[in-house]
Amino acid sequence: MSGWRNVGVMGATVVVAGGVGYLIWNHLSKEQETPQTTPAKEAEKATDNFLCLSVLQPETVKPHGTQVLVLGLDGAGKSSLLHSFTNSWSEGEAQPTQGLNAVSINRADLSIEFLEIGGSVELRQYWHKYMPKALMLVFVVDASNTPLFPLVKTLLHDLLVADPHLPLMVLANKQDCAGACTITDLHEALSLSEVGDRKMFVIGTYVTKEVEEPSSGVEDALEFIIQTIQTPR
């Protein structure tokens, strides 16, 4: 997978054998230590632009939605990320979404419908109405606009109450902007350790039309979206 780098942090891989979940912890430092297998509840993978928290569930909960719901405040970069996911760039600069924006990926082995809802005050009232239809929630945050983090935290936690198992991806977008916070800082600012027992990803992203290939963070995000919706929860 693109975007994975050893940066001297601790990661974990979930292994399921005989119905029991285990964690293989990999300690990355100047000298590689011997991996150890340890029973635990949470799995964590981290690099400088990627963090995956996966909680092992005692029972599989079948998905009930049909869409990947994309939410976030106005100006967070939701539309640009969707264009990058689907390679569907339009002419001119992306404008704030004034209602709903639906795009899809359709090919022989895959079909994903993304539904974006604008982040203005007037449109946030509709966010909850579409949560029951969601296979996964992708919440986009402008990582360079730290004064809005308290509002983002309130809105996100309020949404997640509706479904304690819905997979969550938080995109710390605009990593190419001055002052953009790291994924670790965003995780702390949004109190993501308190969002319940759910599969969660925190990924640093940025989008630019000036290069042919999307950034590694965008590629990672799309890959994990595909993996998540194809795996029963």
TrEMBL record:
Lineage from the top down? Eukaryota, Metazoa, Chordata, Craniata, Vertebrata
A Pfam family of the record is Arf
Supply the alphabetized keyword list: GTP-binding, Magnesium, Membrane, Metal-binding, Nucleotide-binding, Transmembrane, Transmembrane helix
- Positions contributing to GTP binding: 72-79, 119, 173-176
State the SUPFAM superfamilies in the record. Answer: P-loop containing nucleoside triphosphate hydrolases
Name of the molecule in the record? ADP-ribosylation factor-like 9
Concerning PROSITE patterns, the annotation shows: ARF
Q: Does the keyword Magnesium apply?
A: yes
The entry's Mg(2+)-binding residues are: 79, 97
For this UniProt entry, which segments traverse the membrane? 7-25
Source organism of this protein record: Neogobius melanostomus
Q: Which GO terms describe its molecular function?
A: GTP binding; GTPase activity; metal ion binding
